[in-house]
Every structure is written in structure tokens, then in C-alpha cells.
Amino acid sequence: MEELLEQLAVCVERGKVNAASPYPPDMKGEDGADELTKKALDEGIAPDDVLAKGLVIGMGRVGQKFSENKVFVPDLLMAAKAMSAGMAYLKPFFEAGEAHHKGVFIIGTVQGDLHDIGKNLVAMVVEGGGWKVVDLGVDVSPEKFVEAVSENDGCVVGLSALLTTTMVNMEKTVALIKKSAPGTKVVVGGAPLTAEFAEKIGADGYSADPQGALSFLDV
Ligand code: B1M
Q1: Does the CB atom of residue 195 touch ligand 1 within 6 A?
Q2: Domain residue extents for the chain
Q3: CA–CA separation, 62 vs 25, rounded Å?
Q4: Would you identify the CATH topology of the domain 2-95?
Q5: What is the pLDDT of residues 50-63, one digit of tens each?
């Protein structure tokens, strides 16, 4: 069982989607996350283990390497694609309540801001970390975040901003979330942000990269 789950983790880490995928070249012709997830479930490995000890491990490794500038955006995208191929087999188990997410993470780019590439990477890594992700998209108003929080008891919220002009909307969003659902944790990120700014606006956490956001959630 351990060997199969390790192979699965390697497929996600390297972005090996399925046997037909030519990427990465040194794994050409080998089974990918698609075949290995199916095989693991067919062999009776519990869906929670396939997720936590296979797919999530691989995504964690690639997320860490991304933080260390050892791999780049395309590598993260390929890993997310491999992860998704495996997740497709796990979906029915989540729906039946036989596999479990760690929690719900609501993410969006704040009002007035249309940048979503970084936000999407954070969503992928967090999903790869075993969380259910509710992605509200871009240009999300404070009220829309609050509405999503009210629909997802116990969730954690992630806010992304890429413009100095929209950082002020991040502050408004944190304030409204804290007012309407005081216990809700909020983590913020985006190129112009700093830890000092995050603290000033009352956010609970700041991360410069997707893996840091996941680490905040996993504490
Ligand atoms: Co715009 N843009 N843009 N842009 N854009 C920047 C951000 C800018 C720095 C370019 C520049 O002037 N040098 C500048 C902002 C200056 C500032 O305010 N500091 C800028 C500007 C000014 C604008 C417009 C105003 C331009 C105009 O129209 N005059 C306009 C604004 C539109 C709007 O949002 N209302 C605009 C528009 C656009 C496009 C639509 C053309 C396009 C966005 C496409 C899209 O996202 N779908 C775009 C792009 C692509 C960029 C640059 C080139 C790249 C941004 C990006 O995707 N980076 C950018 C310049 C640059 O960065 N070189 C620029 C890659 C991405 C992986 O990194 O988003 O930083 P990033 O995300 C990182 C981290 O920040 C972090 O993790 C990610 C992965 O490491 N992170 C989080 C992000 N969110 C997080 C949340 C977390 C944790 C970590 O927890 C919740």
C-alpha cells in the first residue's frame, strides 16, 4: 500500500496526469495519477488514505518547491492537473461522506481587482492540501464574502489583491467579515502585501505564496 501511495505522490509532484500523457518526458508510458488512483481504490485502500497519503503529499512537495523557487508556475499547473485526475475518482466518496475534507476554504480576489492567476494557484494548492475550496472569483465585494461565510459554517477565508488601489477593499472585507462572523479566520496574500499590512487590517494571517496559505490553514 505504501509503495503505491508513494508512486501516486510522485505522479502529482511531477505532474504526471495519466499513462497517455507525454509529460514529464522521463515518465513517458508509465501510469499516472489517473491510473494509480483507480488502482489504489480497486485494491481497497481507503479514499481518505489515497487523498492524505498520496495526492496531498505530492501537492505538498511541489508547493514547497514552488515556495523555494525550485519549480515554477507551469510545474504547479501540471501538478494540479494530475491532482484533479485523481480527485475525479474520489469525488463520489466525498459526496457519499466516505472521504472527508479538512475544512472549507473560501477564496476570492477583492473588489475592483481582476487579477486571478495567483489566486487560482493558491486555490489549487489548498485543494491539493485536502481542503474543499469555494472560489468566488475576482472583483468580489465584501458582502459576497460575508454571504459565502454564512453559508459555510466554520470556514476560513482567503483574500487576494494585486493592486495597491484594491488593498483598501481588502481592509473593508476583513472588517465586514469580522463584524458579521467574528470567529472567522482570514488569511491574505498578493504581491503588494506585507505581513505588517495584514496585521494592520486585522487579518489573522499573511502568506507570500500558496504553500504558506496552506500552512496557515493546517495549523
Ligand atoms: Co495587472 N498589474 N493590471 N494585469 N498585472 C500588475 C499587478 C502590476 C504590478 C504591473 C506593473 O505595473 N508592473 C500593476 C500593479 C501596480 C500596483 O498597484 N502595485 C498592475 C496594474 C497597474 C494593472 C492595471 C491597473 C493596468 C491598467 O489597466 N492600467 C489593470 C487593473 C485591472 C483590475 O484588476 N481592475 C491590470 C490588468 C491586468 C490584466 C487583466 C491584463 C492581467 C491579469 C490577468 C489575470 O489575472 N487573469 C494582468 C497581469 C497578468 C499582471 C502581471 C503582469 C502579472 C500578475 C500575475 O499573474 N503574476 C503583474 C505584474 C507582475 O507581477 N509582473 C500586474 C503571477 C502570479 C502567479 O503571481 O499574482 O503575485 P501573483 O500571486 C502570487 C503571490 O502574490 C501569492 O501567491 C501567488 C503565487 O506565488 N498570492 C497569494 C496571491 N494571492 C494570494 C493569496 C494568499 C496567499 C498568497 O492567501 C489568500
Answers
A1: no
A2: 2-95, 104-217
A3: 18
A4: 1.10.1240
A5: 998 999 899 999 99
Pick the residue whose CA is nearest to atom 50 on ligand 1.
Answer: 115
Mean pLDDT of 62-88: 94
Ligand 1 in contact with 161 (CB < 6 A)? no
* Percent of the chain topping pLDDT 90: 90
The pTM of the full predicted model, rounded to 2 decimals, is: 0.90
Q: What angle, rounded to 10 degrees, do the helices at 117-128 and 210-218 form?
A: 40
The three grid cell numbers given for residue 58, joined into one nine-digit string = 505530492
Cell numbers that stand for 175 in this block: 472588517
The span from the CA of 46 to the CA of 95, in Å, is 15
CB contact at 8 A, 40 and 8: yes
Distance CA 7, CA 217 (A): 26
For ligand 1, say whether the CB of 158 is within 6 Å of any of its atoms.
Answer: yes
Residue 113 Cα, ligand 1 centroid: separation in angstroms?
9
CATH superfamily of 104-217: Cobalamin-binding domain (3.40.50.280)
